[in-house]
Amino acid sequence: MTHARQHTIQVVAHRGASEDAPEHTLAAYVKAIEDGADALECDVRLTADGHLVCVHDRRVNRTSNGRGAVSALELADLAALDFGSRKDSHESPDWSDPEYTSVLTLERLLELVADAGRRVELAIETKHPTRWAGQVEERLVRLLRRFGLADPPTPAESAVRIMSFSPRSLHRVAAAVPTVPTVYLTQFVAPRLREGRLPAGARIAGPSIRIIRSHPAYVERLHEAGLQVHVWTVDTPEDVDLCIRLGVDAIITNRPKQVLSQLGRA
Ligand code: G3P
Ligand code: CA
């Protein structure tokens, strides 16, 4: 029998409020902050000239009007593209300023959060970091230092956390900024998850909702091991209900407004 813990479930806007605005754009993150999200999720990749940008896919083809791999393009190339042009299946607000739909750098996102006027946390995911042999983490840590986010007194007080499917990436981050929490993401059931343990350096478990649907007991096991559980990507009322019943610590969703409403917080 699983007992839900008495705590506030954090609502994390996945790629911004990406159900309502083009993913990973300033538009999506401004909307998420307006909707009341507790935290913002973003994926980061390195451009050919060494900038961290918020893009999920290896290529820009799906989310922009351009083509090519992020790693082969310079920031100026990316800045010439429209990342709002492919959001044709949903109604978007009228974001007439191109700044809202151009490529978003991690630096700009950090500025947005710093100017939010309330505490908004950031969950930053490193994408395919092994390819860059530590450069992604190095630049990420440099940016965190610049924004005063690299040395929280304790992990619980940190306003930022780093997520990855790559244990090596999490290890690099933990070695450089030990009090910034790291989240080990898993898409499929991993033996270590079953046993309630994470790779060295990881402090939080980040299982997919698919894992939690088929193995709900994992949440209690991970909690008993002293770990938090952040579940992605939770978009249906049924899945939100399941997360509430199990007492997960964070719900990562494309629909922060609806989830906050279901939690009775909007
Ligand atoms: O928040 C974790 C989740 O974003 C991982 O999957 O593919 O959406 O980056 P993906
Ligand atoms: Ca992600």
UniProtKB/TrEMBL annotation:
InterPro entries: GP_PDE_dom (IPR030395), PLC-like_Pdiesterase_TIM-brl (IPR017946). Residues 9-263 form the GP-PDE domain. It comes from the Bacteria. PROSITE patterns: GP_PDE. This is Glycerophosphodiester phosphodiesterase. The lineage of its organism: Bacteria, Bacillati, Actinomycetota, Actinomycetes, Kitasatosporales.
